[in-house]
Amino acid sequence: MTGVNSTLPEPARRVAGDALQGTLVDLLGLSLIGKQAHWNIVGPRFRSIHLQLDEVVSTARSYADTVAERASALGVPPDGRPETIAAAYTLPGPKEGWIRDTEVVQLVVDTLGAAIERLRERITATAEPDPVTQDLLIGITGELEKQRWMFDAENWPRDE
Amino acid sequence: MTGVNSTLPEPARRVAGDALQGTLVDLLGLSLIGKQAHWNIVGPRFRSIHLQLDEVVSTARSYADTVAERASALGVPPDGRPETIAAAYTLPGPKEGWIRDTEVVQLVVDTLGAAIERLRERITATAEPDPVTQDLLIGITGELEKQRWMFDAENWPRDE
Amino acid sequence: MTGVNSTLPEPARRVAGDALQGTLVDLLGLSLIGKQAHWNIVGPRFRSIHLQLDEVVSTARSYADTVAERASALGVPPDGRPETIAAAYTLPGPKEGWIRDTEVVQLVVDTLGAAIERLRERITATAEPDPVTQDLLIGITGELEKQRWMFDAENWPRDE
Amino acid sequence: MTGVNSTLPEPARRVAGDALQGTLVDLLGLSLIGKQAHWNIVGPRFRSIHLQLDEVVSTARSYADTVAERASALGVPPDGRPETIAAAYTLPGPKEGWIRDTEVVQLVVDTLGAAIERLRERITATAEPDPVTQDLLIGITGELEKQRWMFDAENWPRDE
Amino acid sequence: MTGVNSTLPEPARRVAGDALQGTLVDLLGLSLIGKQAHWNIVGPRFRSIHLQLDEVVSTARSYADTVAERASALGVPPDGRPETIAAAYTLPGPKEGWIRDTEVVQLVVDTLGAAIERLRERITATAEPDPVTQDLLIGITGELEKQRWMFDAENWPRDE
Amino acid sequence: MTGVNSTLPEPARRVAGDALQGTLVDLLGLSLIGKQAHWNIVGPRFRSIHLQLDEVVSTARSYADTVAERASALGVPPDGRPETIAAAYTLPGPKEGWIRDTEVVQLVVDTLGAAIERLRERITATAEPDPVTQDLLIGITGELEKQRWMFDAENWPRDE
Amino acid sequence: MTGVNSTLPEPARRVAGDALQGTLVDLLGLSLIGKQAHWNIVGPRFRSIHLQLDEVVSTARSYADTVAERASALGVPPDGRPETIAAAYTLPGPKEGWIRDTEVVQLVVDTLGAAIERLRERITATAEPDPVTQDLLIGITGELEKQRWMFDAENWPRDE
Amino acid sequence: MTGVNSTLPEPARRVAGDALQGTLVDLLGLSLIGKQAHWNIVGPRFRSIHLQLDEVVSTARSYADTVAERASALGVPPDGRPETIAAAYTLPGPKEGWIRDTEVVQLVVDTLGAAIERLRERITATAEPDPVTQDLLIGITGELEKQRWMFDAENWPRDE
Amino acid sequence: MTGVNSTLPEPARRVAGDALQGTLVDLLGLSLIGKQAHWNIVGPRFRSIHLQLDEVVSTARSYADTVAERASALGVPPDGRPETIAAAYTLPGPKEGWIRDTEVVQLVVDTLGAAIERLRERITATAEPDPVTQDLLIGITGELEKQRWMFDAENWPRDE
Amino acid sequence: MTGVNSTLPEPARRVAGDALQGTLVDLLGLSLIGKQAHWNIVGPRFRSIHLQLDEVVSTARSYADTVAERASALGVPPDGRPETIAAAYTLPGPKEGWIRDTEVVQLVVDTLGAAIERLRERITATAEPDPVTQDLLIGITGELEKQRWMFDAENWPRDE
Amino acid sequence: MTGVNSTLPEPARRVAGDALQGTLVDLLGLSLIGKQAHWNIVGPRFRSIHLQLDEVVSTARSYADTVAERASALGVPPDGRPETIAAAYTLPGPKEGWIRDTEVVQLVVDTLGAAIERLRERITATAEPDPVTQDLLIGITGELEKQRWMFDAENWPRDE
Amino acid sequence: MTGVNSTLPEPARRVAGDALQGTLVDLLGLSLIGKQAHWNIVGPRFRSIHLQLDEVVSTARSYADTVAERASALGVPPDGRPETIAAAYTLPGPKEGWIRDTEVVQLVVDTLGAAIERLRERITATAEPDPVTQDLLIGITGELEKQRWMFDAENWPRDE
Q: Which chains have 3+ CB pairs within 8 A of H?
């Protein structure tokens, strides 16, 4: 079935579309595991990190929406269905059940770090084909790096 | 690892926990496929349904949070990870790619109808063991029935 | 003409539908006579009761909307047309023209008392067929009882 | 029983009072049938018109309050009781039960058109006796004409 | 010294200017005696009328500003200095010291009644020379008549 | 192609339509030249007038919308396209490039003065055919006269 | 002295009244000891728990008001005087003076746990006599269980 | 156990601490009896005083928090536990059960009067040792005197 | 007629009452002449000072209310009637008609300077009899000195 | 006449200035034709598209302001006068009079598509001379592409 | 160059001016080192103290502005330039680079303690010459003591 | 002591860190001298520029926070201590004491101009190593250029 027309020529559309679809999966996955940790965290730092995780989730949800709508705007139908996320998501995630606060902090540092690394590759890849998409990915990266710092700065005791 | 203690005796805790975990998966799945349709819908009624779907997503997200936190409060660690949703979600969902507005409306009517049916069973099951959980499920059912009506009322032409 | 499908089996749908339609008429009638008293009240307590009546009207209007939409959600078309209200409304109401503040207070106590009595019967009737509708009626009853108390508490001098 | 004194001489008071009482009945009736359609509408344009009808209802309720309070301010007790509306309301209204979206649009165009025609007569009638009341009726007319336009502009297909 | 130029021809400017200056004095005086009563009222209805008087003051202050700025806009310098108000204000006002609530109510009814009477004359006078000024005076009259009604409706017992 | 039906008889519709179309062009032109001055003004009073001009623009845009929608409500399609404004706009406007603050003040006084003069003629013309349209034009005139005063009051030194 | 009439028959009124009065004392006591801990807490987690305690206090105060007003609405005068609370309050409370953060967390877990246990008994007791009161108690229980979970989840180290 | 260090020398700390602890008990007691009257008041002035009492409660709660936190800031652990209030509170309070509106007004006048007298003594006592605490007590006194006036002004009929 | 009782002994009451009544007259006068200048100012700095004057008026009105209510709270009926202000006001004020911006600035500097001088005397006079009143006068003085500075800082050219 | 100095060297200033002036004309034209369609649209989708068009207009106005102020900041006086827009605007626009909803949708898709194409050229042109201007153009392009998608997605039936 | 005139006699002006200038430097320094710690803090309590530090900064900035404007109002030009702060600031501050959370807490306790000690001396010094300045310094001291308490209460482990 | 890990490789981290630290010093210095001028400005344009300077300060403070947190996020501890700013700040600043409005305007134009020049160099330097940092610097530059324009546009008379 025919859908939305693109404002980009085909090769550029494909590169931008791939970058956006990959980012969408990462962000939706991040929003789900952020909530998972938000609900299952235990330990003396419960309240502070419980609240902090909701900022991660809120950021991830908001950018996921922007990213998916940009894909649609480029004529690329985004895919954020449960089975797609489960199949395509490759960042670290929490195990089942209760999880100690120190483990949560380490997990978020690792997950955000991996997501940022992938985003930086996509920033390079989209510079030429679509600076508008690149600008969006730059904005996401800056925000995730800020949130990663905040978890890294409280990642103590480091070896627990 | 030890976690949160329950305020319910064991059998009641198990019944309420099962009802909440099942509802959590349905609501998280609903929030994902609601967004999927929000992004991929095409057709003359695009804007109206695009906005309406965000109300479904917003409702699903908000209740998912309440349901998961109620599980935690009963000493049952909730599970909303991507792989869990993908494995446990059984309600109807959209196919990949662009989707016509009339199909979206039918899909939401069907999905909400199936979710409501399962919720009504859980209302019965939790009445005795935990009226607090039951009250929460009653509230969710009322809200989903309201949203189902709004899609059913605009489900025209019916046989397209 | 075909309309909205119900999520309830037929007998339950009928019981819930009757309870909701009866409540709708009472609430719409209450909103109209509340405004009538709001406009026609005279006496030294004018301002205080004039304002208080608007809270009754606001409550009645808001619940009327919720009740009617719940009927629609159950596949029962609600009826709130002028002629229907005039024919079906049986609670006490004000006479024509200016009305003394003490009379207004007594009238609202009586009207709310009658409405509450009917609501309590409907709470019992809907417990089995539809706990979602019952929960809504319980909420309305609690709110009307609160407002009835506030008028009863200021119903002085009692025999004027 | 004596009530509020008028700031107008008697003949002027009667003319303005009649114009206001007639307008009050039209507006209260309009608010009731607007809600009736809001609840019972079905068809593909359900959501858009469902929302649009609430703007009609909100306008009608707000002006009804202003109109009735102006009557009181002129020493004329307004009458908005259910039986009065049912007896005095003569504008077109919906039949019982579900109603198609296209019919709703036509109905609102007709009802608002009839109400506007009556308001224009009252504008002429009150010009001399009470320019304050006239100014209020002018304001109502402008607002209803705006809302009528919006329904007329979407009154398509015209002959369905 | 030269000031602001007028958009009206001279005779019209004079008529409108007189109407506005007279209204300005009445409104500023009303704002001062409203506050005087607000501070000095005693009696069982203290709180209700204390609050109600602030609505009179707020209305009077707001319209005084609009009226004076309209005079300026017509090239007529408005005069609201203390000595001018004291010399030109002729509406009823409170005596010195504490004042009973029933007296306050009667006083406000009388003062607003007198102000309204003068406004109605100015409405007639400005119809021809400046319909913009007339429209403003019509708006003020409607608002003062509404507030007068609210005090008149609570003017009980009448002969105290 | 057929469009919106009118609630006015034909001759009245034509008079009101002409008055509204003429006002629309003036207001849209005013909004454009107000912005032009807002961007190009230089001189020591830059900031104060830069801000003040945005109030003119905001007023002009808001009334333009109201005026055009009133035309539509009367069955007269309004015309605010670039070529129409350029062809029909006859009020004074700024030259190209930077413009001194004192010149801006004089320009706005002149432009608003000319617009007011035309509005006063339309107030007279529409009194009989459509008091609703007249009431709107009266409101616009009052607001523009207020803004004209504020620029005239700061139009110093006058002969620079 | 006679007071407010009840909308419940006598035995039901007594059962509901007892449940509400008991809950009122628990909630007022909770609000006082919550503030006591809010002011006297010391330790590295001061700020987080200081803020968290204010949410307990805010919840307790708000529900205390609702519970007391429901008692009044049932014709049962509520008693929340200092001497009554001191005499009837039986939940755990803090000792005098500064208190370590870990102790505060344990105290709140214990106090809320005891309050919840008593509420669950009242939910059972009021089911028959007054479902409106029961519904209120269910709501309070759910909220307190949520807050208890948050303190229990951060109740580390457990044996300190 | 060691707690918070003081920024005041010992004798000054003791005087300020005593003044703050005494004020804390008065304000917490006031907040409780204000709510007691808020719930149990009956009589024609119910609504007005019911609302007014909530302003007393709100003031008392807010200042109680400020006073207790100032004590903590001075290294004095504040004591606001139920048993402390019950033992230390010496201002007038309401009897059990429903209470007439006129009695409530007299009670609040008396209670606030007694509290103010004690505050004035503490203002004198703290002037030298801690002007910061004195400034806080001056602020509380001014606010309570304002609220006392409002009840005194409506304390009619005086001898009932 | 008897009014509000005082919480101060007689001599203190008189001193505080005189200070408050004098301040009331100054502030009400200030609010009137501030508006007078707000309306009649002309010159290139019109807009900036027009807005700045409204901050003076707003400050004066707000403090006048506080001052008058403090007088009432001390059992001293405040007097803010037009004739009282006209008779008792002794600060500098504007002449009739349009007034140049530079003159306005000088006038406000002079008027605020004179008001501040009188306030400083009242601060000394009330220190002993009523520190609560003194604290209020200190607050007013600080605010008026801030506003005086802002006009003094822009009082250029100084000798015009 | 001399104006604002530039922070860019001359060739860069010229390139950026041209890009901004061209964008300004496109955006102002877009805001005018968006409003034109907003007022003249007819057809069953009237309300939905009527609202959607206001988002286009709001976007266009807001970015036009930013673009023009950036030109000024670079020392390039922007030109947004009616005659300039009429002469320089080359994007598709509506014909005179009423216009069907389907035509409006097609028109907006075409106009936005053309504007985006021109913006992409300007993004390339400004990359070197002024990355600040480029960043602004990238932001505008992304927003317009999003809005174009929403109209394109509802551009059905395509061949009407 | 001449500046703002003082409302204080010379010796009083000098004492108040010195107190304000000294306080200004302390507060600006505090705002800078508060931000420094806000950015460089690491450790498990990162988030809680990171947020808490922003309240210190916000308080310091707001009071610095008030203090400097009070100096200007007294005719004393305040000095808050970088070189002045660097030269005059004598309170404890952080070393370069990352800083552990426990160190930050100790540092803030020390810095605020030192600032409070200096403020208390200035309160004594200004009592006679300018009670308005004294009142401001009292307010600042109370606020800083409150913030010092909050850090002192969480200053654990004490000897780390 | 170890701190936050970087998401950038070492050379990139150093370049970005230097650019951010340099910008931080410029922005903090700008916020301090902006406030200095805000407090010490005199002259007829006092109020307008006094307000405008607070926008510069607000911008500088907000971006300083963003810049410093970005440095932290890259593992570079930012340095904003008083002594660092005093030593590293090299942009133009005000002399001690009162300062004429015309001088302030010239000073801000010069200071912003110098800051912009340095920012443009950093934009070039960071393009390769870290486009996220570059994007932030582009945003700051655009905002400062806008504010510089506004001061430059009012920089009259130019040679005073």
A: C, E, G, I, K
Range of the domain at K93: 10-154
Residue C5 counted as domain residue:
no
Contacts of G124 (CB under 8 A, 6+ apart): none
Closest CA to G123 of I4, B15, B127: B127
Domain total in chain A:
1
Full DSSP string of J43-98 = STTHHHHHHHHHHHHHHHHHHHHHHHHHHHHTT------HHHHHHH--S----SS-
Which chain E residues touch H48 with a CB distance below 8 Å? 47-48
| L81: closest CA of chain J, how far (Å) | 30
- Angle between the N-to-C axes of helices K10-40 and K131-153, in degrees from 0 to 180, rounded to the nearest 10: 20
Residue E148 has its nearest CB partner, among D3, D7, D135, at D7
Q: pLDDT (tens digit, 9 = 90+) per residue, A49-106?
A: 999 999 999 999 999 999 999 999 999 999 999 999 999 999 999 999 999 999 999 9
Measured between beta carbons, the chain J residues lying within 8 angstroms of A131 are 123, 134, 138
- Residues in C touching H48 (Cβ below 8 Å): 48
Chain D residues with CB under 8 Å of J41 CB are 153
pTM above 0.80, yes or no: yes
- On whether the CB atoms of residues B155 and B148 are closer than 8 A, the answer is no
One-letter identity of residue D6: S
Residue type, H10: E
Whether residue I24 is predicted with pLDDT greater than 60 in this model: the reply is yes
- Residues in G lying within 8 Å of A, measured between beta carbons: 45, 48-49, 52, 150, 153-154, 156-157
Average pLDDT value for residue range E87-91? 93
CATH number at residue B130: 1.20.1260.10
Tokens of G120: 């669950």
Supply I127's token pair: 């220190």
Confidence of residue C160 (pLDDT cuts 50, 70, 90): very low
Cβ L57 vs Cβ L31: under 8 Å: yes
Would the pLDDT of E1 be above 90?
no
Which residues, at least 6 apart from L86, have a Cβ–Cβ distance to it below 8 Å?
K82, K83, K85, K86, K87
Q: Evaluate whether residue D159 is within a structural domain.
A: no
CB pairs under 8 A between I and L: 23
DSSP category for residue E128? T
Structural domain contains residue B159: no
Q: Which two tokens stand for residue C73?
A: 């959600």
As to burial, measured by CB atoms within 10 angstroms (0-12 exposed, 13-18 middle, 19+ buried), residue G19 is buried
Give per-residue burial for A1-39: e unless 16+ CB within 10 Å, then b. Answer: eebbebbbeeebbebbbebbbbbbbbbbbbbbbbbbbbb
In a domain, A160, yes or no: no
Residue written as tokens 């290139």? I44
Residues forming beta bridges with residue I41, ordered by sequence position: I99
What tokens does A31 get? Answer: 């929003």
CA A41 to CA A56: how far, in whole Å? 15
Q: If you measure CA to CA, which chain A residue comes closest to L73?
A: A149
Q: How far is I114 from chain E (nearest CA, A)?
A: 17
Alpha helix (H) residue ranges in B2-130: 10-40, 46-73, 82-88, 101-126
* pLDDT on residue J97: 97
Given an 8 Å threshold on Cβ–Cβ distance, is I82 in contact with E94? no
- Looking at the partner chain, which of H45, H52, H150 has a beta carbon nearest the beta carbon of E44? H45
Is C28 in contact with D125 (CB distance < 8 Å)? no
- CA distances D20 to D75, D76, E147, L46, Å, are 12, 9, 18, 54
DSSP 3-state assignment of D41? strand
Closest CA to A76 of H75, K34, J149: J149
B/J interface, count of CB pairs below 8 Å: 23
For testing the chain A interface, which of B4, B24, B81 should be mutated: the one with the most A CBs within 10 Å? Answer: B81
